[in-house]
What does this fold into?
Amino acid sequence: MKIIFIIGTGRSGTTLLTHILKTNSEIHSTPENSFLLTFLRHSRKKLNRIQFNKDYSDYIKYKYKVKDATDEIGSGLWKIDEYVVTDNYKTTFINSLLAIRYTNEKIDTYTQKVLIADKNPDYTFYVNEILKIFPHAKFIIACRDPRGYSNSYKQRPRKINSVIYFSYIWKKYHQLGISYIKKNTEKFHYFKYEDFINEPKNALINLSEFMGVNFKSEMLNHHLHIPIKDKHYKNVRFKKKLETLRRPLERTALDKWKNQLTNKEISYINHICQYEMKELGYSIHNKHELNIIDKLKITFISIFAFLSYFLLLKNYYYIPFRIRLFLIKYFGLRR
It folds into this structure.
């Protein structure tokens, strides 16, 4: 079965895209979680069933604060069959990984399914490692105008609420995305949120062609296929997300940043992301000159953003598993 990974920035229609793909009878979209990334380092060594089960159990226990780590938690975790993960010397990591991450969702019972779509923005920084495990995988790079992206984060209550920080992170994602697409257009496809909102049918036809599946008209009416209630409906954030997904697409949403960002904030984003914006076809508005204080502010916040990017995005899943578990257990770093 073919695998497509949805990468790129969050707040760029990735959840929407996942639900759209679900309406295509040929595609199985999996819930987002960090399973593959969490156990990425395990792919570098011979897989031992006992050690793997212990690591997995501890990870679920501390990350989700449950006593029985073998229980199915939410929509993104699975029970582990101890006979699926084997220490047989001929068994490869990929077989065990597929068995837990995908087969446990009983995808094989859906006879029409020919493709798995797995979404996680953090995959963007681990493409080369993923390709070692899934050499025939393809990648959809989700993208949104950095001003719309930054504004979307700004509107949410956060400890860090600076468009300089958000635009720096956007820049890092798409520096990689642009480099991927320049190297191999057969494996990578840019899916721009604005193109999809303006011309959804054309965008989905092109995307279906890239994935190697048939375009289905149901994909255009994705909002009619969102369940009225879900087992996580009591979660306020999840409930709000479902309500948003049930609404038809609105072009007016594309221009919200023009009214909600200040001219200074727009200038910060333009300054930081100008090269990537040009490469991706985003025009630069409001060419407001930045003074020395503005540039010093950009430098200072960008240093903090770089540290966050370097430690928590680009290299986090290369940190030894037990150290990450320590960070989860004692510092609540639930990535």
